[in-house]
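STRUCTURE:
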């Protein structure tokens, strides 16, 4: 398993003109690793991946991998509208130093077996995780398809649906790793047997996220106020701005 526990879906920091601040983003990643994050995801939905050009994605992976301790894996978001695009992004991210990739299912999800087969092939044996987020790219990945995707080489799944019943069904039907993306399910996901979580809110509240995933109900309740204020990259950045980070977004 590439990691267990709580990882962060890292924001991407930009300067006042909207240019990529790779050094600032890497410094934030290193800080969060120091606060207990077990993995760092760059260029995900929270990282405004759709606004990043290929060279910026490579620069981010390179900078964050250099800043984060070797024992903390760096994952790169490589989902795209087509298998061809996702495969290219995957190969580039791994060449730049990513330890694995997280590939959002494409809109429409017409042929997910082909899509993930191509991503797994491009990864050349490196860990590949699927990403179910129907709120961003509908309809996402059906639970019943997960065992087949596992046979094709998918190591696990991040599920940001926030659906508690789906969480349980996935744990029953899928042998791969399962990472929740919804902060509202943390105190249930850990005790139920989820492998971990990859969270936007962990940019702001890493300690509470870790405690909640461990089953601490008080931490889950304390996290609620931040969850209400951290929906989307711009909201997370506004909270981080209170601590001195740039609030500039491209979305």
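SEQUENCE:
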């Amino acid at each position: 398993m590439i990691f267990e526990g709580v990882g962060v879906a890292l924001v991407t920091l930009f300067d006042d003109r909207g240019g990529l601040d790779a050094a600032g983003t890497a410094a934030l990643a290193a800080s969060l690793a120091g606060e207990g994050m077990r993995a760092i995801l760059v260029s995900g939905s929270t990282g405004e991946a759709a606004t990043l050009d290929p060279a910026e994605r490579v620069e981010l992976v390179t900078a964050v991998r250099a800043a984060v301790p070797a024992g903390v894996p760096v994952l790169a978001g490589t989902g795209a509208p087509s298998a061809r695009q996702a495969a290219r992004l995957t190969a580039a991210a791994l060449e730049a130093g990513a330890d694995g990739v997280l590939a959002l299912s494409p809109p429409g999800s017409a042929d997910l077996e082909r899509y993930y087969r191509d991503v797994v092939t491009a990864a050349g044996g490196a860990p590949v995780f699927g990403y179910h987020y129907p709120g961003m790219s509908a309809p996402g990945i059906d639970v019943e398809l997960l065992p087949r995707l596992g046979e094709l080489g998918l190591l696990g799944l991040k599920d940001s649906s926030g659906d508690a019943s789906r969480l349980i069904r996935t744990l029953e039907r899928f042998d791969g790793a399962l990472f929740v993306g919804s902060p509202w399910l943390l105190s249930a996901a850990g005790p139920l047997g989820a492998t971990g979580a990859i969270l936007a809110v962990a940019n702001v509240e890493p300690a509470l996220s870790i405690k909640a995933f461990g089953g601490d109900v008080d931490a889950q309740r304390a996290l609620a106020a931040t969850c209400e204020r951290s929906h989307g990259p711009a909201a997370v950045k506004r909270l981080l701005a209170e601590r001195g980070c740039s609030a500039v977004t491209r979305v």
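REMARK: The chain has a mean pLDDT of 96.
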